[in-house]
Design brief:
Blueprint (H helix, E strand, L loop, with lengths): L6 E3 L6 E2 L27 E5 L6 H19 L3 H6 L3 H4 L3 H14 L5 E2 L3 E6 L4 E8 L2 E2 L2 E2 L4 E8 L2 E12 L2 E12 L2 E11 L7 H13 L3 H15 L5 E2 L1 H11 L13 E5 L2 E13 L2 E9 L6 H18 L9 E7 L5 E7 L5
Parallel strand pairs: 16-17
Antiparallel strand pairs: 1-18, 2-15, 3-5, 4-10, 5-10, 6-9, 7-8, 9-13, 10-11, 11-12, 14-15, 15-16, 17-18
Helix pairs in contact: 5-6, 6-7
């Protein structure tokens, strides 16, 4: 993570990323403890209950547990939250503690409202490599206003509750999503996802509108990247799709740049005599700025002076190749990633890229 400023390296910085993904996204939630190794030898089944499918006691019981946990989150009471978690999450709780700490100042004193919950039931004898839950009523054109699809990978058999809470705050709209797992007669915390629904006071519709503006100007790379932000802001969970996210996906897919890295495919970027293999390119929200992150392959990052120079070269080459990015982002962050996954990052403010 990077600190603010024009040219700084490897300091901590709070951020929100909007990486490209398909219509169905991999599960990625703070402190998730329900993902295990998959087995291909099992017989699987998935089912989903919407709020209208549940009796009143089941619906209210699930929402009550989520609202109780929200109060603990808003008060920063991670000790009590720890006691209400499933065993595997209890053993590895650092991610949840970080999520609560990072968002407590925004959520303190807020009152949440629960959306209609979902219950996902996976049966079988071992984890499901890919579990897809279709919830609610679907029309001839796909999802409807109240439907949802959840796609989870390596999901063990069990009964899971998904409760999304809306938490308006002085910093704008937030959603707090809890993944609960049934243990005996109790619902216990299995995962937590907290995210802002706005970026610098702008929501999904604003970014979608800006994407259309960029498209009208022929700035298709900017348009694609802003659609990523719009999709992320409208969905509280990256492994959940709705009619709104599907529409944004459909609107953006025809704009996906062929010269950007995507779905595991690299893209070449020439900087002088060197050609870099780009592996990812996505927006990143940092405080009130929207930055652009570019990741590329590096054989070794131990010589930080050399990697810093490579990072700067990548940033300058990227903006030289796509000058339209200047009008859409405040800064560019280059991250050199070695074969082990370790990275070294450098930030350069757009005004300092010459």
């Amino acid at each position: 993570m990077l600190d603010s400023g024009s040219l700084l390296k490897n300091c901590r910085r709070k951020r929100t990323t909007f990486e490209a993904s398909g219509r169905r996204s991999r599960l990625h939630i703070y402190g998730i403890a329900i993902l295990l190794a998959a087995s291909a030898s099992s017989v699987f089944a998935e089912s989903c209950l919407t709020a209208s499918d549940m009796d009143e006691s089941a619906r209210n019981g699930l929402s009550s547990v989520a609202l109780r946990d929200f109060d603990l989150i808003a008060n920063g009471d991670t000790a009590s939250l720890h006691q209400s978690a499933i065993p595997s999450l209890v053993a590895d709780f650092a991610g949840v503690e970080t999520a609560v700490k990072d968002n407590q100042s925004a959520l303190a004193g807020t009152k949440a409202t629960a959306r209609p919950p979902f219950i996902l039931e996976a049966t079988g004898t071992s984890p499901m490599e890919r579990a897809e839950f279709f919830c609610g009523v679907f029309g001839s054109k796909g999802q409807t206003r109240d439907s949802a699809v959840f796609t989870l990978y390596n999901l063990p058999p069990g009964r899971y509750g998904v409760v999304i809470l809306d938490a308006p705050s002085s910093r704008g709209a937030y959603t707090v999503s809890l993944i609960l797992q049934r243990f005996g007669a109790d619902w216990k915390l299995g995962g937590l996802y907290i995210k802002a629904g706005e970026l610098n006071a702008h929501g999904s519709e604003w970014f979608s509108s800006r994407a259309q503006d960029f498209q009208g100007k022929g700035q298709l790379h900017d348009a694609w990247l802003y659609y990523l932000v719009a999709r992320s802001l409208v969905s509280p969970l990256p492994f959940m799709s709705t009619a709104a996210t599907d529409k944004l996906y459909d609107d953006s897919q025809k704009l996906q740049p062929a010269d950007f890295p995507s779905e595991g495919k690299t893209a070449d970027l020439s900087a002088g005599a060197t050609t870099y293999k780009l592996t990812a390119l996505f927006p990143e929200a940092v405080a009130k700025d929207l930055d652009l992150v570019v990741k590329y392959q590096a054989a070794d990052i131990s010589n930080t002076t050399q990697i810093y120079q490579s990072n700067v070269a990548v940033i300058k080459a990227l903006i030289a190749k796509y000058p339209e990015l200047r009008s859409a982002f405040a800064a560019v962050v280059a991250r050199a990633v070695d074969p082990s996954g370790r990275d070294y990052g450098t930030l350069l403010a757009m005004k300092d890229i010459h």
